[in-house]
Amino acid sequence: MLEVKDINAWYGDVHILRDLSLSVDAGEVLCMLGRNGAGKTTALKAIMGLVKPRSGSIALDGVELTELPAYRVPKQGIAYVPQGRRLFAELSVAENLEIGLMARDKGRDTRDRVLDLFPVLRERLKQRSGTLSGGEQQMLAMARALCLEPRVLLLDEPTEGLMPSMIAAIRDSVSRLRRQGVAIVLVEQRVDAVLPVADRVAFIENGCTRDTVAVEALHGDLSLVHKYVGVGR
C-alpha cells in the first residue's frame, strides 16, 4: 500500500535520511522506534511532502508522492498527526474538525463517524481547543486527521505526556482504526505503548532502517530495543 524506498533527505547541509525504506499495508500498524534524532519525524514529514527527498521513492498504491506538492498529499488519503498536535488553539473543537473535513471535501456523516471514536469530543464541540486537557487535545488532533477519511494515518508520539487512562484510550483508537483497514505508521518512544497495538517494528538509526521485525519477536526479548533505543520500557 504505502512504500518508502531508499529515500535520502537533508536539512540544509545535514544528511538526515540515508536510504531509508519501510512499507505498511492496509489494516497494519508499523511502529518506528529509535533514539531521539534518528530521523523518525523527518521520515513522516518526507511522506507528507513537508521535507522533499533528494532521491528515492514514496508511493501509495503505485502513485508516486514525491512528485506532488505537499498540499496534495492529504488528498491522496494520507493524514498526519504531528508531535505537539498543532491544533488551532483559538478555534473551537467543531471548527478544528471542520478544517479537517475541508481538506477532502467531507461532510457531517464523516464527522459523526469520527466523533463515534472520540465521544468525549461531542461534549466539547463549542469549547476552545486550547482549553482542552492534553489527552483531549490529542484526541482532537487525531479526530481532525481522521476527518480526511485517510487510508494511511501517520502518528508522531501520540502518547507523549499523557496519563495512563488517556494512553489506553489512544491505543484503543489505533486498534479500532486498524480493524477498519487503515494503515498506520506510528512513531513512539514508549515500548509498552507499542507492543499491544503494532504488527511490525522498524528500528531507525542514523536515518536508516536497520531492522524490521514482527512485534511477536520482541515479547520477552528486548535486545533490539536496548540496542536501538537504549531503554526497555
From TrEMBL:
Q: Which domain of life is it from?
A: Bacteria
InterPro entries assigned to the protein according to its UniProt record, in alphabetical order = AAA+_ATPase, ABC_transporter-like_ATP-bd, ABC_transporter-like_CS, BCAA_Transport_ATP-bd_LivF, P-loop_NTPase
| One of the record's GO molecular function terms | ATP hydrolysis activity
Keywords linked to the UniProt accession: Amino-acid transport, ATP-binding, Nucleotide-binding, Transport
GO BP terms, alphabetized? L-amino acid transport
Q: Which Pfam families match?
A: ABC_tran
Q: Which residue intervals define the domain ABC transporter in the entry? A: 2-231
Family assignment from sequence similarity: Belongs to the ABC transporter superfamily.
Identify this protein by name.
ABC transporter ATP-binding protein
